[in-house]
Amino acid sequence: MRLCRFGSGSLGVVDGTVVRDVTRALDVLPAYRYPLPPHDVMIANIDRVIERARAIAADAPSVPLASVTLLSPVANPGKIVCAPVNYQKHLDEVRSQSELHHGSQAHTAPIHTAGLFLKAISALVGPGEGIALRKLDRRNDHEVELAVVVGKAARNVSRQEALGHVAGYAIGLDITIRGPEERSLRKSPDSYAVLGPWLVTRDEIVDPGNLDLRLAVNGEERQNSNTRFLILGVAELIEYASSFYTLYPGDIIITGTPEGVSPIQPGDVISAYVEHIGTMEVKVRAA
Fold this sequence. Notes:
Elements: E1 2-6, E2 10-15, E3 18-21, H1 41-44, H2 46-57, E4 62-64, E5 70-71, E6 80-82, H3 88-96, H4 98-101, H5 105-108, H6 111-114, E7 117-119, E8 124-125, E9 131-133, E10 140-141, E11 144-150, H7 159-162, E12 166-174, E13 176-177, H8 183-186, E14 193-201, E15 212-217, E16 220-226, H9 234-242, E17 252-254, E18 269-274, E19 278-286
Parallel strand pairs: 6-17, 8-14, 9-19
Antiparallel strand pairs: 1-2, 1-5, 1-14, 2-3, 3-4, 6-7, 10-13, 11-12, 11-17, 12-14, 15-16, 15-18, 18-19
């Protein structure tokens, strides 16, 4: 199933070129009082939501997909976990271009040494909200990635069990301001984490380790690769991350970008594709 959030927070099932409004399926969610749980409530109860959505989808009102503003399919992640230099060819290009590494050994270390980093959850937007670039005197780059949405809590999970903790997959754009600062700072401005266009449930993607992914800017292809070239695959990333901290339902793991990162400017239109998920278009503007 392909679940999207659109408009002012409605829940939809993507059915070809239309979205079926199944917001009433959210009625199955439990109610909470403060303090709220440290996870996304819909993702934590996604099986119940899907069951209800299937029951009502046929009679639900529908709207053209092209007419809706797509939000992030996850509303309240606890954290966005990022995998730097997780494709060898991207690591090679970072090492070969001073404007990418700025003389920092931390930026040229392999992922086994560099580890993971976190993006602020305030950076998260959906494709319909667009990217608002900051620091226009510096280089801002696109990075297309497979995004993984955690479905149930994971703590010290083995790679053999890891995929059982996944709710689904989406396309991620990790937008980056180039410079000498820590990655988490340069990658966390508002709108610098785009997730979408919808959540594809785990059952529809049997092997996340063999998916084509591409990115074009204004119709010009910039990135083209496959997740089989990931240094640490999805299961290994979940194992690695969960050995440091608990992953909660709704947490997002963006798995790394292949080679071909390059600058974007206000007025650009990014088209990002991941096999078995689809394509999302994102407009770029100045903040």
